[in-house]
C-alpha cells in the first residue's frame, strides 16, 4: 500500500457560542481548519484535521499548519501509510517541531491503517476499555451567573465534565471575579461531575494565591494551566491547595516526562493536534499512565474529524486515569463529517466502524487549497 495523493482543504469553523473569551483578553469567533485527505494506490482514503485555537493559544497558527503540511506532504508520497512510526520519523527528519502540521497527516494515516485491516483506530491503539467516556464542556469566561447557566445547559445535554475558564486582569475584576465564577459554576454541582478551573496560562502565582484565599473551603475542582511557565508552575505547586493539571505546557513527550520527574502536576490535557497526532499522542498517553497522571483527551478545537481522533485515543485510557474527552465538534457550527458515537450511561464511545469511522461531507470542504500527487 502506497500513498498516491494528499489533498489539503481549508474551511472556517464558526464558534457555536458567539464569542469565546479566554484569559488575557483573548477572543475567538471562528477557527481556521486545515483538513487533509490521503489516498492510496488501492483507492483507500484517510482523513485528518488540525485546527489551532487561533494564533494566540499555543505556538501554532493555521497559516503555519498549511505551510508545514506543504513541507511534509511531498516526503510522504509513495510511503506505506500503515507504518505510522516510520512515517513520523520521516516527518521529524523533514521538519523540526510544528506538531500541528504533522497531526492531520498522521491521523489520516491511522484512518487508512484501520480501514486496511477492517478495524477501528482504537483497536490499533490498544483496544477500547468499553467504558463510556464523560464529555466535558468548555465554558468561556464571562459573567458568573451567565457561566453557571451555560454549565446547566451542558449538564442538561449530558456533559459530566466542565471546563471553567478564568484568568481576568485586575482592571476587569481580577481574582475576586474569578473566585465568583468558580463558586457560581460549582453551585449546582451534581454527583459524578468533574470540574476543571482553567486559566489557560493567564494567571501568575500571585493572582492564583489571592484567588485561593477568596474561595470557601470544600470546593471540589482541579486547577488547570494556572500559569504559563514551568518556573511559575513549580512555585505554585508548593503553595496551592488544589490538584494541578497542565495543558498548554504539555506538547512534547519530554514535557510529560518533566511533569513526572518534577512532580509538577497531577494530570495532563492531551490535545491530539498539540501533541502532533495519534502516534505521539499514544506515546504521551503511555508515559502519563506510567507516571500515574490523569489524562483528559481533547483537541485545541476542531470539527467532527478532530473529535474522532480524540474519541479513539480517549477510549484506550483506563477508567481510573481518564477524566473527560472534549467534543470539539460541539464547539463549532460547521459539520465537516458524520461521526457516530454510542451514548450510554451518561458517556460516549466511538462505534466500531473501520478507521476513524467518519463520513466526510466533501461538499462543505470546497476545492482543495493544495494537492500533492505521484
Ligand atoms: Mg485547557
Question: What's this model, at a glance?
Answer:
The chain is of the alpha/beta class and 374 residues long. 35% of the residues lie in helices and 24% in strands.
Shape annotation = globular
Counted beta strands: 18
SSE string:
EEEEEHHHHEHEHEHEHEHEHHEHEEEEEE
Number of contiguous helices: 12
* % residues in beta strands: 15-25%
| CATH arch. level architecture of the largest domain | Alpha-Beta Barrel
Describe the largest sheet: 8 strands, parallel, barrel
Mean pLDDT equals 96
Oligomer kind: single chain
Spatial strand order of the main sheet: 6-7-8-9-10-11-12-13
Poorly predicted segments: none
Helix content: 25-40%
At the fourth level of CATH, the homologous superfamily of the largest domain is Enolase-like C-terminal domain
Topology:
Elements: E1 3-14, E2 20-22, E3 26-28, E4 30-40, E5 45-50, H1 62-76, H2 84-94, H3 99-117, H4 121-124, E6 135-139, H5 144-156, E7 161-165, H6 174-186, E8 194-198, H7 205-214, E9 222-224, H8 230-237, E10 244-246, H9 253-261, E11 267-271, H10 272-275, H11 278-290, E12 294-298, H12 304-314, E13 322-326, E14 337-339, E15 341-344, E16 347-350, E17 358-360, E18 370-373
Parallel strand pairs: 6-7, 6-13, 7-8, 8-9, 9-10, 10-11, 11-12, 12-13
Antiparallel strand pairs: 1-4, 1-18, 2-3, 4-5, 14-17, 15-16
Helix pairs in contact: 1-2, 1-3, 2-3, 5-6, 6-7, 9-11
The structure holds magnesium ion.
Amino acid at each position: 500500500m502506497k500513498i498516491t495523493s494528499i489533498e489539503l482543504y481549508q474551511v472556517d469553523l464558526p464558534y457555536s457560542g458567539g464569542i469565546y473569551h479566554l484569559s488575557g483578553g483573548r477572543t475567538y469567533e471562528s477557527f481556521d481548519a486545515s483538513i487533509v485527505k490521503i489516498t492510496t494506490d488501492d483507492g483507500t482514503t484517510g482523513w485528518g484535521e488540525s485546527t489551532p485555537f487561533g494564533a494566540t493559544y499555543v505556538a501554532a497558527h493555521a497559516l503555519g499548519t498549511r505551510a508545514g503540511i506543504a513541507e511534509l506532504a511531498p516526503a510522504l508520497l509513495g510511503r506505506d501509510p500503515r507504518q505510522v512510526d516510520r512515517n513520523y520519523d520521516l516527518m521529524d527528519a523533514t521538519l523540526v517541531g510544528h506538531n500541528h502540521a504533522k497531526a492531520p497527516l498522521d491521523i489520516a494515516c491511522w484512518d487508512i491503517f484501520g480501514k486496511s485491516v477492517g478495524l477501528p483506530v482504537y483497536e490499533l491503539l490498544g483496544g477500547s476499555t468499553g467504558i463510556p467516556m464523560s464529555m466535558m464542556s468548555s465554558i468561556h469566561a464571562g459573567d458568573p451567573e451567565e457561566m453557571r447557566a451555560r454549565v446547566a445547559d451542558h449538564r442538561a445535554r449530558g456533559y459530566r465534565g466542565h471546563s471553567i475558564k478564568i484568568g481576568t486582569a485586575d482592571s476587569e475584576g481580577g481574582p475576586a471575579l474569578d473566585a465568583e465564577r468558580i463558586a457560581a459554576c460549582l453551585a449546582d454541582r451534581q454527583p459524578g461531575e468533574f470540574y476543571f478551573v482553567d486559566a489557560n496560562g493567564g494567571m501568575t502565582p500571585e493572582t492564583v494565591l489571592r484567588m485561593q484565599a477568596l474561595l470557601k473551603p470544600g470546593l471540589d475542582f482541579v486547577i488547570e494551566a494556572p500559569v504559563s511557565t514551568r518556573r511559575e508552575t513549580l512555585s505554585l505547586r508548593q503553595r496551592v491547595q488544589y490538584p494541578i493539571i497542565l495543558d498548554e505546557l504539555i506538547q512534547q513527550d519530554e514535557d510529560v516526562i518533566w511533569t513526572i520527574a518534577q512532580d509538577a502536576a497531577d494530570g495532563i490535557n492531551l490535545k491530539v493536534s498539540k501533541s502532533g497526532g495519534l502516534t505521539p499522542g499514544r506515546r504521551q498517553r503511555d508515559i502519563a499512565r506510567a507516571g500515574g497522571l490523569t489524562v483528559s483527551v481533547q483537541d485545541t478545537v476542531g470539527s467532527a474529524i478532530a473529535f474522532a481522533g480524540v474519541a479513539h485515543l480517549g477510549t484506550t485510557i483506563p477508567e481510573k486515569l481518564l477524566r473527560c474527552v472534549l467534543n470539539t465538534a460541539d464547539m463549532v457550527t460547521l459539520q465537516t463529517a458524520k461521526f457516530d458515537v454510542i451514548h450510554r450511561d451518561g458517556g460516549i464511545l466511538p462505534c466500531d466502524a473501520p478507521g476513524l469511522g467518519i463520513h466526510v461531507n466533501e461538499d462543505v470542504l470546497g476545492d482543495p487549497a493544495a494537492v500533492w500527487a505521484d
